[in-house]
Amino acid sequence: MATLTVRKLQTFPAEISVPGDKSISHRAALFAGMAEGRTVIDGFLPSEDCLCSVKAMEAMGAIVEPLEERPGVGLVKLAITGRGPKLQAPAGPIDCGNSGTTMRLLAGILAGQDFSAEMFGDASLSRRPMKRIADPLRLMGASVEGQGEKICAPLTIRGGSLQPITYTLPMASAQVKSAILLAGLYAPGTTTVIEPVATRNHTERIMSHFGLRWQRDGDAVSVEGGQVARATDLVVPGDISSAAFWLVATAAAPGRELRLTNVGLNPTRTGVLDVLRRMGAQISVRELSSAGEPRGDILIRASDLHGTVIGGAEIPNVIDELPILAVAGALAQGVTRIQDAAELRVKETDRIAAVAENLRRMGAHVTEFDDGMEITGGAPLHGAVIPTFHDHRIAMAFAIAGLFAEGETVIEGPECIQTSYPSFTRDLAGFFLA
Ligand code: S3P
Predict the structure, then answer these.
(1) Which one of 317, 374, 396, 428 counts the least CB within 10 Å of its CB?
(2) Assign residue 43 a region: left if phi > 0, alpha if psi is -120 to 50, beta otherwise?
(3) 319 Cβ below 6 A of ligand 1
(4) One-character DSSP codes across 108-146
(5) Residue 205 C-alpha to ligand 1 middle, in angstroms?
(6) Is 320 annotated in the active site?
(7) Tell me: the pLDDT tens digits for 338-392?
(8) Using one digit for the tens of pLDDT, what is the confidence trace for 36-67?
């Protein structure tokens, strides 16, 4: 098995620029593929996950032109000429890899097609619950077949003449909200999703970008069916979820300061900044543009970190950052409590169990709950062998922990990092271990 060995941090950079936002890159590929016209996407994240979305649209008739490869990063600029809303039936099953976003958002698009298509994924994706999208899409009139009670992949979706629905999300999920809104574009009339807790709004923002109208009224988001997306070039900002690893590395390194440039600052994603500020980090933000997706530079300065409580309505905003925030908790003084985060158990792996196990392996004190964990920080961390459970964020969070541990930390199976941050290992080695 391949491994990544991390030791105590040796050097420290002044500035890092992170690759494109994963959520926005997925949506850029999907909407460009169902738009009329040619969209140039710059700042694209060429991770395995996002490339699954590109390949899926290509398999259904979109034309993809690679425009710029960045050495060590991959395809950062491409053009997609869309097929229009009615796609072409794919020649075979669609491979969604490790990507829940591809499978769930594409399910919404497939629900509006006149053909039947199959989607499959890797072992991790095949364990994740798809009932959450099957239920509303079936209510709209699509046929969604999957495996077992949780309706797991492989999924077969037969689109049909859809009808609009009003649906209250039973869990806080931007993927489920997005699947319904996408299907709503194919249903005559108004489809409304009510989200009791706000989730990331990249789908809504990108709909505006592609000329699709939608409305928000309190906690309800509505779209009218029958609209056609119009190709419009777009630039993807850096991913704040990738920046989070370096934010924590800085916050926990006494006397250090780091500038992260061109990071997405959508308020539905910046909760990690609020949590780190509560823990004592000094953070300032310079917003460079607020059009479309807001973006700007983040300057972070270390100070003595202390524990905090992370829970309630804040959870969807920091959901992907909770593994690295748990590591921050272990490096802080006092108790950090993560609660109301049961969704972590159905991510690429059970992230509550994986984080608790690995923090303990490194010498931290952790109590696990059904919906979170409590970490008593301050115990010195030591190197350990870290199973990643094929989860990119577990691998990266514990690589950062390794920078603060005595001895060597060995991350098993680091190739899963390709899911969201293909140049992470290069950045880690070049900026912190050289
Ligand atoms: C995502 C939404 C979140 C997040 C995932 C990406 C998206 O998932 O964890 O990494 O792009 O919409 P859920 O919708 O399951 O909460």
Answers:
(1) 374
(2) left
(3) yes
(4) HHHTTSSSEEEEE--TTGGGS--HHHHHHHHHTT-EEEE
(5) 15
(6) yes
(7) 999 999 999 999 999 999 999 999 999 999 999 999 999 999 999 999 999 999 9
(8) 999 999 999 999 999 999 999 999 999 999 99
Burial 364-385 (b: 16+ CB within 10 A, else e): bebeeeebbbbbbbbeebebbe
Nearest CA to ligand 1 atom 13: 173
- Kindly give the pairing relationship between strand 38-42 and strand 74-81: antiparallel
List the beta bridge partners of residue 419. Answer: none
- Tens of pLDDT, residue by residue over 181-194, are 999 999 999 999 99
Gap between the Cα atoms of 322 and 245, Å rounded: 11
If you measure from the C-alpha of residue 11 to the centroid of ligand 1, how many angstroms do you get, rounded to a whole number? 33
Q: Whole-angstrom Cα distance, residue 107 to residue 101?
A: 10
- For the chain, the C-alpha Rg in angstroms (whole number) is 21
CA angle 294, 296, 298 (to 5 degrees): 130
- 214 phi, psi to nearest 5 deg: -150, 165
Give the integer Cα–Cα distance in Å for 298 and 286: 6
Q: Where does 256-406 have alpha helices with state H?
A: 271-278, 315-318, 322-331, 351-361, 392-402
To test the pocket of ligand 1, the residue of 21, 25, 99, 175 to mutate (highest count of ligand atoms within 8 Å of its CB) is 175
pLDDT at position 101: 98
Asked if 399 and 409 count as a contact pair (C-beta separation under 8 A), the reply is: yes
Taking the C-alpha atoms of residue 193 and residue 175, their distance in angstroms, rounded to an integer, is: 12
Long-range contacts of 363-366 (CB under 8 A, 24+ apart): 363/405, 364/330, 366/326, 366/330
C-beta of residue 337 within 8 angstroms of C-beta of residue 309 = yes
Of the residues 297, 320, 391, 427, only one is catalytic, namely 320
Q: Per residue, what are the HEC states of 149-175?
A: CCCEEEEEEECCCCCCCEEECCCCCHH
The structure's pTM equals 0.98
Rounded to 5 degrees, φ, ψ at 226 are 85, 0
Q: Rounded to whole angstroms, how far apart are CA atoms 260 and 18?
A: 7
Q: How many residues does the chain have?
A: 434
Q: What is the rounded CA–CA span in Å between residue 401 and residue 428?
A: 12
> Nearest 5 degrees, angle CA 85-CA 264-CA 390?
80
Ligand 1, atom 10: closest residue by C-alpha: 320
Distance separating alpha carbons of residues 52 and 45, to the nearest angstrom: 11
